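Field reference: sequence -> structure
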Amino acid sequence: MRVLVIDDNLRLASLVCEGLELCGFMADHAPDLCRAEESLAVIVYDAVILDLGLPDGDGLAWLRSAQRTRTLPPVLILTARTSLGDRVAGLDGGADDYMVKPFEIDELAARVRALLRRPGERLTPVLRAGSLTFDTGTRCAFVNGERLDLTRRECDVLDILMRRAGRVVSRASIENAVYHLESDISANAIEATMSRLRRKLTTLGAGHLLVTRRGDGYMIQSFPK
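Structure field:
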């Protein structure tokens, strides 16, 4: 499960991300709304943790505006605003949950898990393409029931491709999604990751599912049920 933490307090955000990862999540950090929009444009998140007082705008105003134009993943507001009026405004404004700082990371993780258990179409726990399955909760991939031994980077790439199965994902989109928080990456990092991923899929008889579109990007083939 992948979570986006939007908070301009760098130390707190770092602690939140570290704590969530210890609880089994993948966590990315955006220090402002502009970076949050960039991340949401290239990565499919399972949940968003949103602060309200951000340097380039009010988080609640952004949430209201964003939900008018597209479907967001579940949003949990995490803020220092403690009044009843603030909590009501946050929940009425589109948030799925509301927590006040300070907080315990275990409760935050539990609340995110609770959001992801709610019925609806925003979360698809297990993604399928032919003989390949990917569990978004455990981040485990299987071919005909046999588990693929993937590195975290390979798993990140497969996650992105499986969520967009049947559609070509550009190299730039994959690079931004997987490496967007890293400033120093090699020129052929994506190609090397794809080569290793294809080799592992091929070993289990599913190499044909990963398609390269020269000049366009990569795709996991999707087949009608």
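Note: The domain at 126-220 is CATH 1.10.10.10 (Arc Repressor Mutant, subunit A).
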